[in-house]
Amino acid sequence: MSRVCGTALTGIDGVCVEVEVRISSQLPRVDIVGLPEAAVRESAARVRAAISSIGEKFPDRRVTINLAPANLKKSGAGLDLPIAIGILAASGAIEAEAIEGRVFIAELALDGRLRPVRGALAQVIAARDKGCTAAFVAKENANESAVAPGIEVFGANDLEQVIVHLREAVMMPPRVPPDFADADIHADMHADMHADKSRLCLSEVKGQEGAKRALEVAAAGGHALLLSGPPGSGKTMLARRLPGLLPPMYIEEALEVTQIQGSTLQVNAERPLIRTRPFRSPHHTASSAGMLGGGSPAMPGEVTLAHRGVLFLDELPEFDRRTLESLREVLEGRKVRLARAGFSCVFPAHFQLIAAANPCPCGWYQSGVRDCRCDDNAIARYQQRVSGPLLDRIDLHVTVPAQPWSQLEGPSNGPTSAEVRERVLDARKRQNDRGVRCNAEIPDAKLEVLVAATPEANALLGRAVDRFKLSARAARHVLRSARTIADLAQMPKVEPASIAEALATRIESRTPAI
User: Fold this and answer.
1) Which of 49, 338, 400, 427 could, after both became Cys, cross-link 229 (CB 3.0–4.6 A)?
2) pLDDT tens digits for 7-28?
């Protein structure tokens, strides 16, 4: 009898699995119990071949393998290695003391090689939280796993190398964990921005000063932004420059993003810690499952892959209505709860939304450039594809007009992304000093205290709410946006001018165009 610590992946989170192996004097057979899925059931053949290929003896008796907890479905091939180690320990080939406090995570090839698995970082973190002090993984997962603090990580080439280490014949050196701090991440990101000459810069956008200002406010306060205008006006060009304005991630944010990307095998094996904020731009044909996540095993969707970064929805009205409506709760709760038959999981979804839309099917409604070919009913149907409640959850609504050729042929005199980013960092520091990551996250209970609007500013907001019939949610968004505008101006209190600028975006959304 032996007990070995293994792990499995549920969603993007790791969970510890105790692999119990019992060898009894009955007819040769391998039984795996504990709700194993197909890949786990097939591990018996892989483990038998791998053990035989390295010259070890596979027990010629009955082998019963129990995966606890028994009520949790186990998927993936990452349990191959702990099953093999458990069989060898139960047969006496490995001492029981050698596997105590250690976790084993890898898929086995038929010749004994270790293959990487997805979500290695999440699984190592789960094992560390359960008290494991060392983890054995495939060499391709070693750098990613070493990011987890507080646990030694050994990257092995094959099963034989792991066994030799456990027998203390030839010891493997642990993978050196990265020594990083918030300052290191910030310095690396600055270096990357200076080294990457292809990075998109805001100075490349000619004209559109109002949209550039809205982009700066959105970056400084973490606000959701909707850009509306005719084709070719620069909506997508502006949106793709938002990541270059955002502040670098904190250590815990970088670990979260790396864990999420690792669950889909989207990490760099040589430089696994993701230091730049993700930017996701799903196609408008994406389904609700593709946006929110799902499947078997459960995989994160676009909103989770954009966690701590930007989710860009181009051609917003072209998305399926049900897909867009599914984002309403996500924008409020910052998470996705998936409940399916047999399992449930929670995916984080703390992203910044930026969307782009044409005002009508042909795109030229009220553009002043071409005549719109759409009738009134077609325009109304097109605009109704995006519901009012969803638009109400977007802080900033900005019109991006078509630019005349005289503006496009001249040089760009606007600020660079680096210059705007310095102002954004200064505004974010003011928000951090008030106890929030960004103004978009100010809770309703603390809104009055943290916004600190003057009586004149509150009076202006009240008149606008009555005149334009703004909802209570929209009024709160205006206050948060105004607080960001005041932070950019280095003003301790929100004055009427900040409220007026924030209101301008909400008033634009009351026009017939989206």
Assistant:
1) 400
2) 999 889 999 999 999 999 888 9
For residues 203-236, one letter each, b for 16 or more C-beta atoms within 10 angstroms of the residue's C-beta and e for the rest, the string is: bebbbbeebbbbbbbbbbbbbbbbbbbbeebbbb
CATH homologous superfamily of 185-416:
P-loop containing nucleotide triphosphate hydrolases (3.40.50.300)
CA–CA distance, 403 with 30 (Å, rounded to integer): 71
Q: pLDDT band for position 187 (50/70/90)?
A: low
Q: Which residues pair with 32 in a beta bridge?
A: 65
Domain 2-166 is in which class? alpha beta
Q: Considering only CA atoms, which of 354, 336, 355 is closest in space to residue 346? A: 336
By the 10 Å C-beta count (0-12 exposed, 13-18 middle, 19+ buried), 341 is classed as: exposed
Other Cβ atoms closer than 10 A to 409? 8
Encoding tokens for residue 150? 């507080």
SS3 (DSSP) at 513: coil
Residues in the chain: 514
Amino acid at 332: E
Residue 233 pLDDT: 87
pLDDT score of 510: 44
Our CA angle for 266, 269, 270, nearest 5°, is: 135
Which residues touch 383 (CB under 8 Å, ≥6 apart)? 317, 359, 360, 512, 513, 514
Please check the confidence at residue 168 and state whether its pLDDT lies above 70.
yes
- Which secondary structure element, helix H or strand E, spans residue 502, and what is its range? helix 496-508
Question: Per DSSP, which regions of 95-195 are E strands?
Answer: 102-105, 107-108, 114-115, 134-138, 152-156
The pLDDT assigned to 383 comes to 86
For the segment 50-96, what is each residue's pLDDT rounded down to a tens digit? 999 999 999 999 999 999 999 888 988 899 999 999 999 999 999 99
Q: State the DSSP code for 68.
A: E
Please count the other Cβ atoms lying within 10 Å of the Cβ belonging to residue 411. 7
Is the entire prediction scored with pTM above 0.85?
yes
Report the pLDDT value the prediction gives residue 182, as an integer from 0 to 100: 54
